[in-house]
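ENTRY TYPE: paired fold submission
RECORD: A
CONTENT: sequence, then structure tokens
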Amino acid sequence: MEIQISRESTIPLHLQLLNQLRHRILSGHWPPGSRLPSETMLQRRLGISRSTVRQALHRAESEGLIERVPGKGTFVARQPGGPPNSRLIGYITFDFLSDFQRQLLRGAEDRARSRGYRILFCNSNRDVAEEDRLLEQLLADQVRGILIWPALDNRPSRRLFHLAQQCRVPLVLMDRTLPGLRCDHVSSDNYGGAYAAVSHLIELGHRRIAFLSRPILQLEPVAERLRGYRAALQEAGLSPLEPWLLGAPGREMDVGYALHTYHAASSQEIQELMRRLDRPDRPTAIFAMNDLMATQALKAAALVGLQVPEDLSLVGFDDMDIARHLEVPLTTVAQDTFALGQRAAEFLVERLEGYPGPPRREVLPTQLRIRASTGPARAVERTRAPGPLVEKAQCTPCQGFTNS
């Protein structure tokens, strides 16, 4: 396995290198006593600074993975990390391109390290076949348990279901679960966050509010956000609209694609949103399943001449880094991903140290962060109903919210 460092990842370079060293040493690719490449060789081969290399080597030495011999070099420890991988945890997610994912990993590593465990982290790139391979690799590395943000796929033939049934190692699911999969699970309050977001729009006077999503409504977090959207509208005596579903069925949107299409102002999703927003019966507000979808709506609105929030209010979900740095900072629902990673690691360590109970589920609170993308609905909303165009007066918005 070649050492690879990604400059696009939000994971610090020294942690990426440390993780690669862990993989090579604990998998036996570098056997005990073998000599590591020199600091200069690692620096040149990876294109990183000498201080970055030294940070990673210092952490590896403190974990008992390597030994430095003055005048001779750096070597794999005779017994790397103590008893064979007895304190090692596997971690799989599907990208490391956003601060959201970096915070999740930081939380998990913070709590695992405080309990004497180390983490091997892996990227499935949203591909179930790659996730299957990584699960097998982690088992070969003799990890004690696995934290996983599973890729989207409900097929019972995937390796994750087999591991859960065989109980070979404890598993803890982060953010999402899958039907029929009985494992400990930590998620955010997707329903409550969505309910708060749509209630905010209603109190601003909006009556036609669309739910914007990829066609992955079967995915639990998205299903819960849709449920919260509908509940807020129905309790206010309003009718939910049919979800606006954009993109290929069963495919999630990644950060790279969202940012590229946002800056290039070209994608099938943006073109479809432009068509929907350039109609007389368009909604006055959109609640998007996540911040990435909200950025697509923001671009589409600008391309058809709508101003945000004067003509269209937008709310996202996740509070990713990009949300506060858009030309119109995005109102969104924040998840505490650091705490989510911490709690998932706690669940796993408790299993490893003897907790015998049934699968547990914990839902962490979310917080609505109000910024510039939401504002009062126009005094008169023009909506297209069957028959003639109708004008409908709006209520006075609530004054109890402030921007953050």
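RECORD: B
CONTENT: sequence, then structure tokens
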Amino acid sequence: MSATTIIADIAKRARIAARTLAASSGDERNQLLLNIADELEKNLDLILKANQLDMDAAKSAGISLSLQDRLLLTEKRIKEMAAATRDIAKLADPLGKVLVERNLANGLNLKQKSVPFGVVGMVYEARPNVTVDAAVILIKSGNAALLRGSSTASNSNQALITVMKKAFTNAKISEEVLQIIPSDDRATATALLTARGLVDLVIPRGSAQLIRSVIDEATVPTIETGAGVCHVYVDKTADLEKAVAILINSKCDRPSVCNAAETLLVHQDIAEKFLPIALNALTLAGVTINADNASKVIADKLNIKVNPATEASWSTEYGSLEINVAQVSDVMGAIDHIAKYGTNHTEAIVAEDKEAISIFTSLNDCAAIMVNASTRFTDGGQMGFGAEIGISNQKLHARGPMGLEQMTTTTWIVSGNGQIRQ
């Protein structure tokens, strides 16, 4: 059977199953999510054994440590997935909201209501937690989910789908609203991306290469999630103790994710004072440092090992314990650097001066701006969405972490009493 035929069959079954979601109440969908959370915790051993198979294969294949970290599931991470699922169940129902209502002079009543997209495909790499995040967000927002993870996580993803489907026992919602797309053949990804008319929306989540591939190939509408070349700018008015803590958290808390900082920008007026502190803290944290010439001079005086930054360094998303360091003339210099090398994801400023903060927040074109806070807060769970289906850095429909509301569209309902257009 061809990949196109396989995807067509899966998508058709998902669309039929999606009717059971459309007919369900918010309480029924919430209960299903609570059941999924329970099943995740009941089946820890099954999930961890499947994940170990993927981890063993990844290590044998020499996959990078950052990708191994994305792939790894632990008891703590699975329990966090269950907790996030319960948090989503507590959130307001995104469906059936009346966004606009008005009466026309001819007696017609107009209502714009929130409704599901229908059938949503996800194409993602490595991180099996996306399987759960996407599934529960899409279920709660009334969408059937076609989940196409990478072959590196195939055992983990299959186990998670199997476990989540146990939650559908005795539910009115069909378990076929959750569909896993085979990942052993790249042709299934292409078939999903080109299943226009069968699939309503596709969302890529992963590396810049994956996202670009999806955008280039897809004929199905897409929401583009973005790579994260994120910056921390330390202004001359910054509280340096805050700045070091924010820098280390932004870079080191979990360096493999898209909201980790990749470049430190320092106002030149405080470089002699701040860089010795920052470079030493980064070195102690095991971070490889690539510095511009001015910053390297300071590092050399202190016998702190740094590498000379190259032009390619500034636009690199490392996903590991590696960072760039550069001095800038002022807040506008930071903005210019970010505009040239950033990816419109998350930018942070550490400053006490209100004018510098105002300029930074007004002129940075990105999905999220952190003021005296870590870049790691650009996250659906941290921002009160329970979890996220991805972080969009485009400008259409959704921007930033995408939760329940971003997984809905609208329908206009026009009610009359026999009116005809003259």
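NOTES ON RECORD B: The radius of gyration is 24 Å. The CA atoms of residues 59 and 263 lie 29 Å apart.
STATUS: closed
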